Every structure is written in C-alpha cells, then in structure tokens.
Amino acid sequence: MNSLFKKLFKLSLRQKIMFSIIACLIAPPIIAIQVSDYFTRDVLREQAATNAQESLDVANLYVTDLLNSMIYMTNNIQFDNETATVMRKLGQEPFDPSLIVMEGKYITNKLETLVFSKDHMYISVLLPNGAYFTNYSGSEFNPLQFRSEPWFAKLDSMTEYDIHWVGTHPNYIGSRTKASPNLVTMARVLKSSSSKPYAYIVLSAEEQMISDFFNKYAPTQKMMLTDSTGTILASTDNQQIGTVFSQMEATDQSKTKFLMVDNQEYILLNEPLSISGWHLISLVSYQTAIEKIQNIRKNDYWAQFVFLLIFIVFLFLIINRITKPLVVLARVAASVKLGTLNVRADIRGTDEIGRLGQVFNQMLERIELMIEQITEEQTRKRMLELELLQAQINPHFLFNLLNSIRMKIRMRGDRESADLITSLSKLLRMTINRNNEFLPVDVEVDTVRHYVKLMNVRHNQKIQFEESIVPNVLMEDIPRFTIQPFIENAFIHGLNQKYGHIILSIWKDQTYLIISVWDDGVGIDEEKMDELKKSLNREANDSKSRINGIGLKNVHDRLALIYGPSFQMDIQSDAKSGTEITIKLPLRAKGED
Q1: Where does the record place the HAMP domain (predicted)?
Q2: What three-state secondary structure class fits 92?
Q3: In terms of Cα–Cα distance, which of 281, 174, 188 is closest to 234?
C-alpha cells in the first residue's frame, strides 16, 4: 500500500488529476451497485414468490371451476325428478330393448344438452340392467367396460351425495387420443330411497385442457395437479402424468419454499383445491422468475458504464488540452532555473493560460517583478482548477440525458419504463425551474399525476388516484407545489404506504378556489387532531409548531403568507372514513398580484 502511494506522489499533476477524477467517478457507482444488490436481494425473492403465487391462484380458479362444472352436471342429472323417473323405469329388470329405444332418447338428449357448451367432456350413465347412455358414439368406447375397473365396485358403498374422483387415466375416446392422451374422471352412484342403486354416472374431461391452460397462462412455471399421495394428474409435461412428484414432502401449504434442484434454486408452492382433496403444485426457477428485472438492471448498468466511458474520454481530452500549456510552462521554468533567461513560452490564446504565458514572458524581461507575478498567477491558476472541479452539470444536460435514455428504452419496447422516466424528467423540471411562483391549476395537477405515478413505482403498489376537477378552474393560477404536499401526506401518513384511494377535487365559487384531497387511510386520532390544529395556529418560528408525522405546517404558513387572512384550511379525519384536507384560496382578478 505504501509503495502505491509513493508511486502516486511521483505522478505529474496532469496524471494525478486524471487519476483522482477517474477514481471519484468509478468508485461511487460500484459501491452503489453492491449496496443495491445487497438490500434488494430479499425484495426480489419476495416479489418472485408473490408473482408465482398469483399465477398459482389463477390456475386454482380455473381448475376449481372445471371440477365444479363436472359436479354441477352430475347434480343436474341427480336432482332432475323427470330424469330420475325415466332412469328408474329403464333400469328395471328384465332388460326391454324397445323401451330403451323409445324412452331412452330423453336421457340421451339430456346428456347432450349438459355438455353442449363444454368442449371435450364425455358423460356416461350406466343402469343396473346393463343399459347405458352416452354423449359419444358407442363405437368409440363401450361404457360397460367401466364395470371391470377396480374403482367401480366402490361406488355401491357410497352415498348418492359422495363423489369418487378417479383421477387421470388414458383417453378411452380413440379419435381424441392424439390431441389429449389422458382424461380426468369422476364417478357417482344414484340411489333410491331404499339405498339401492338405480344409475351410475361417469364423467370425464380431457386433461389437455388443464395442461394447455398451465402452458398458456404461466409458460415459465412448471405447474401440476396432484392427488393427496403426490401422484401427478395433470402437468405441463405430459411425460410426468401418473408419476409421483418427488418433492411432495418438501411442500408446505402455508409457506413458500426455496429449494435446490440440480444445483439450481427453485420456488416451490403448494395450494390445496377446495374440492376433491387434490393439490396444485408450482415449481419455478428463481432465475427465470427474476429474469426480466435482472435484464432491466443489467441494461441500466451497461448504459451507465457506456456513458461513464464516454464522459471519461471527453474528460481526458479536456484535461489534456488544459494542462498541455502548463507542461510547456514547466519546461521553460526549468530552463530559467538553470540560468537560461533567453527562452520564451510560445503559448497563444486569450484564455487564462494564454495570458499566463504572456505574463511569464514579461516576468523574464522584468526580473525584479518575477516573484510577485509568479505568486499572483499561480494563485489564479489554483482558483481556476478549484472552479473546474466544483462545476456542476447543467440541468438542461440532465434533461436531455434523461430524454435520450427514455428514447432508448422506448425503442426496446419498454413503454412503461420510458413513461416513468418522462414523469421523473417533468417532476425534476418543475422542481428546478423557479421562474414562475404561480402556475395554472392544469400544470399543477399534471405535476401531481407524475408524482403519483413515481410513488406507485417506488412503493411497488397501485394507489388508486382519482380526479374530480371542474373544467372552469384549469386556468386559475395557484402557488407552485400547493397540491403535491397534500398528496405526499396522504401517501406516507394517511395510507401508510399501503393500497388505498386518493381523490383530488377542485372547484370554485364566486369568491374562492376550493381544493380537497381525500384518502381512505388510517385517519388521525382525536389527540393528534387537536395537536395538529393547535400547531397550525402557532407562529411559523415557534419551536413547538412542529407536527410529528404530518408535514402540513410549511404549506399552511406559505399559503397564509401569500393570501393573508382570506386563506382557509380545514381538516376532517376519523378511522372509518379516512382524512380529507380542504383549502380555500381567494380568487384573484386578472393582472392582480
């Protein structure tokens, strides 16, 4: 470390300046990136888990709706008295083919009506005497084969209100096996008052409907439907159907699990269905879940790096141009030190360094004034260097730079981020610009809209912002940043940075322009309300006039100073209806200060 400092001290002035500036430019972004990555790591994990849970909830609604539809169809058959009567009549022994032909058409029409609006559902009704009815052709499949299935014998021991969820099995409709190799099936038994079965209902839906929904809605997630033992009934990967989910023991219905599979981190979610005792499982790669966010951050880092390199190159050129004449002067001074007084500095220009060269030549001609002139010019040189280091970026450069970044992001298709940069640019411009103390209501409200958009992004939530503004007030002038502090107060203290509503209302009567800001937040208790009203009535320089948690004092004092006693401010708040702040500003005649 000491050797490094020694080498730095041996550098020339120009090299030291370049090295210092580069270090000051590069070190802060690197430190900021590391700190940002550390503090946003948990937030990214939480956001990724939330997104995965939302997708799983939507899938739950779809699957539950499908199973409920199947239950509804079987209930429709069970509780239709006419249908039940026909089935009892047709199911009597001995088997009467003529009766089946004449009256069985009613059952067939009933089944076709039930599944008319449902794609790829197959319903079978089996009678005890061997008769059956279906909504599909008997040449595709003979439903009497169901009686040889192991689960069919269990139906006789069930009540007519029980449902047996068979699960997933190969598609028995030959023409549909390629499109959907598997079916999800349920079965019920219908019994008379004597508990004797008079019909069996078997209803099947194509599993491909579920897997297609999984693939379409959440293509980056691996979703599957399992029974209580972990056997996969439906999945985005058809090869897994019928196998046991190996990570079933790691799932927890109350928590989000992060686990390692094949050296890759995954988010594992388990959500039970409200019916059937089945489960929806979601397995999504953590890197895939945060890929979009990471890409945005990488692009942002690369953009900063490119602009930093460009800035450093221009800085090198500027420093080299400024310091090159100093190098010439140093060489001339070294020659003078050795006694060569006839040398001159060939430096041209009208700037400070050019004048310095001229004065240096004059000092050589007037040796008696050399020390005084050198001291004065060296002092001037140091002041110029300090001014150079203390110079600030022109605000117009900042706005142009933001606009360039916005256009690049918009060209890449990220319209939302481009709009956010537009909002930030406009808000910064309104903050920096001090030319007009008064602005039209329309401009002030536009600033509030941009502020709300940025606050929603900052807190990762959507505050519902509504406006109720009478058109005839849009051109009325009000002091700058009159409304924004009340919106900020509603965000931070009223809604406590949580989801809620904010309503901005503006209208006028013959005397006043009236502005109201309402939020449905936590409200202000009675004790704090009393303290707030007392604080607003104190003098502005009173040390006791600070309002803990509600920054309204400064706005009140500023408007009172501008409008005098004509200004009015009213605050209404309770825990149920939220908080409403209303101010009345006297209307001014055109041309009146």
Answers
A1: 320-372
A2: coil
A3: 281
What the block records as the tokens of 353 is 């360094």
- Between CA 449 and CA 419 the distance in angstroms is 12
Q: Which two tokens stand for residue 351?
A: 């700037």
* Domains of the chain with bracketed CATH: 44-57+211-292 (3.30.450.20), 65-205 (3.30.450.20), 294-391 (no CATH), 436-586 (3.30.565.10)
Q: Cα–Cα distance between 495 and 436 in angstroms, integer?
A: 32
What kind and span of H or E run contains 17?
Answer: helix 13-78
d(CA 450, CA 299): 24
DSSP structural state of residue 277:
T
In the DSSP assignment, the letter for residue 244 is B
Q: How many CA atoms lie within 13 A of 223 on its CB side?
A: 26
C-alpha to C-alpha distance for 284 and 14, rounded to whole angstroms: 54
State both tokens at 394. Answer: 């022109």
Interaxial angle between packed helices 395-411 and 291-337, expressed in degrees from 0 to 180 and rounded to the nearest 10: 140
Q: Return the residue matching tokens 């120009």.
A: 14
| In the block, residue with structure tokens 């790669």 | 285
Identity of residue 123: I
Strand 121-126 with 132-134, pairing: antiparallel
Reported as a pLDDT band with limits 50, 70 and 90, residue 356 is: confident
- What is the model's pTM? 0.48
SS3 at position 120: coil
Number of residues that this document lists for the chain = 593
Predicted confidence (pLDDT) per residue in 529-577, tens digit = 888 888 777 654 444 444 433 467 778 888 888 888 889 999 888 877 7
* Spatial strand order in the sheet of 232-235: 232-235, 222-226, 279-285, 264-272, 257-261
Note the pLDDT of residue 548.
39
pLDDT exceeds 50 at position 451: yes
